[in-house]
Amino acid sequence: MAWFRHVPVGRPSAPSRLPGGPDQDVPVPHVTPVVLEAHPGAPQAPAVRIYLGTQPEQYRAERVFFYSLLQVRDPDRRYEIYRMVDLPGFDRRGWRTGFTNYRFAIPDLAGRRGRAIYNDVDQIYLGDPAALFDQSMDGHGYLTLLPQDTAVMLIDCQRMARCWTYAKACHRGKKALCAEAAAEPGRWGALDPIWHARDLEYRHGQSRLLHYTTLHLQPWRPTPDRYSYHIHPYAEYFHGLEQAADAEGYEVFTADRPSPGFAAACRGATDDDPAMLVDETCRQALELGASRLTLVGPWRATPGVARWPWQALRRDELPRQDAVAATGLERLPTEDIPWLLDRLFRLARHGVLIRVSSGAEGSPVGSPEAWRALLRRVARRYPEHCWQLDCLDRAGRLHRYRADPARRITPPRVWALQGVHPGDNAQLREVTTALGWPHETKRLRSCLHKPADGWPDLLLSVGWLPSLVARAIRWRAGRRPRLVVLGRPFAPLSRFDRVITTPQYDLPLRENVVDLPAPFAVVRTPDGAQLETWRQRLAYLPRPWIVLLVGGDSKPYRFDTDTAAALGRAASAAVRPLAGSLLISTSPRTGGKAADALLGAIDVPRWCYRYGCGGDNPYPALLALGDAFIVTAESVSMLTEACMTGRPVTLFPLPARRSPLARLRHGVERRVAAIGRKASMRGTPLQQTVFGRLRDKAIEIGLYNGERRIGQVHLALGVHPLSEGLEQLPGLSPALLAGARERALRAIREVLEVEASPAPAISAKRRTAPDAGASAAADEGASAP
What we know:
By secondary structure, the chain is of the alpha/beta class. It contains 23 helices and 31 strands. The strands form six sheets. It has an eight-stranded mixed beta sheet with strand order 1-4-6-5-7-10-9-11. It has a six-stranded mixed beta sheet with strand order 15-14-16-17-18-19, sandwiched between helices. It has a six-stranded parallel beta sheet with strand order 21-20-22-23-24-25, sandwiched between helices. The chain starts with a strand and ends in a 5-residue tail after the last helix. Mean pLDDT is 87; it is low at 1-14, 18-24 and 760-785.
């Protein structure tokens, strides 16, 4: 297990002043690092120093950056990570991020000695940065991909201090500082690209750092007011790390190692909440099933009610309490709030009550919704606990949210509305089964009449027509059912509680939209006897067994006889050198003539199942027995199920044939740079334009739907064309695909959590001491939906 602590390393506790030169009177601030200690007895080696450019809006990215580093670090090595955030003295005009020029201050921040790695916060490590830190610099002062691309750097701090100083970083532009550094011959050196894969440059198994550099594709959506977000092809690497960190309860700062500013913030907290609120909070604790209450934070002393200061939560020996109530959390460093909330839940047997105000805009606690999201993340590890959040927004309005597990004992009633496409219905069936709740499958024509036992609690649908029927049912039921749609609804996104979507639909990611890398699918392996039966039936064929899964026409893609014959020839050419066999399965979309052309072109040993011609469907057995898979590219469901086996998967692309109207629409979209934009000179997707945001707005309000972009699913799954061979494993592992499915299920379950609606407005002038009438009104307005 990694050891952590925070210590000042090689720097005095007060700002230093640089000797000599034009910078002699410029104070350089002290930055306290996060230290990952080496195991006791480890060999001596220089500490790996990493300087991280970050800002409050990137709190999710920062946590995942640290967690990714923990997964790949050498436990026998010491690492020092310096968070460069809100550094003083900088002129930030013209910056694209809140940390643009911090990187050029590193030589002075590091004491003009040794080496340092610089990273932007929107990156994750896939390999140990110690290998980068230790590599030869061949006399260069800094290594980057390009002289002007400084998002990842290895820096010789002594040599670079001649041109990159704290004073220059404060006042000069990024381009000028890069140009000055590159002007001296030999100062710049090329960085190995494996240490800086920007977006689509990522190569599975090769890249050791992934940089989410395209701002409107960043999976954590840091600034939704500035960008209309879309699914990043490699978003699941970030989501997988974040889910693992959530499950583990990982935080950068903890009770054992709080942030450097925690102690001072605790000393500055004053007792200013009126005693009246203690009585009110005690009553609310009783409503949550707690008989006694302990107060944490700057409450006023109240006879008969135990009270702890924030510093007390650092002690492990604190006894568990029936319920705890905390106030004033927003006055503490935001870096410490997650571990403090976790301590509150750990100390409470039954319930946790939180009274706070919104923090700085863009921070983890910058709004009531942000507070709720953070509280939900922590509470997920304590599913039996009740909790209540009272949060004042900046307008003085009190928002109250309450979650009570006792009200979740009775399973909800679920309707699954079937559509017209078998693939859609299969996906819907897998979701309802995975939720584990009793459900009824309804046909569209038979579900608009009110049933004798009442309307359901949840309506699940897939595609535009079932989602239209779901909205009609909700209208007739008086808005009782919650609506969840899979895919895209071709309706205003705001009309649904959750939209579970995948990359081919290219939906803008709004607060209620959950992005998955591929369709929701579960591979069901046949039982042992069935599997053995199929193994014996196919035993006469030479191995390896290459499974060919064949789709068919799917707008705008066509699978005609010429394409089918080309697939047969290509599959035969790939299998022939292996001396193996093809196991072929067609699908409902495979035309008879296309299937004949396919089989006629194959000249290697084969076995074929033609869908609809009778006999047992071997599809589950083929997924279990195949050594590798070839899948027609238009079938994202079959591609996903093949990838879930963890064995090699390749795709065979089908030609797109659009109608004249579709060609016109597609051409216009490309012309206005809304879709299909070419990569920049650096190999990254170009940033979003105003036309792209206008297109997203039209989709958001239900006026427009674009063409499916299945190539985005291919990128997300990490599958390659058959022309590149049969040996490559998918980039997305079965574990990451399983994590994506769990994220979708969690999002659906959350819409049925019993939480209170916002309470009535309370004047901001009374935020510290509202009168009794205002408190009562707030509580009365907190009715469950």
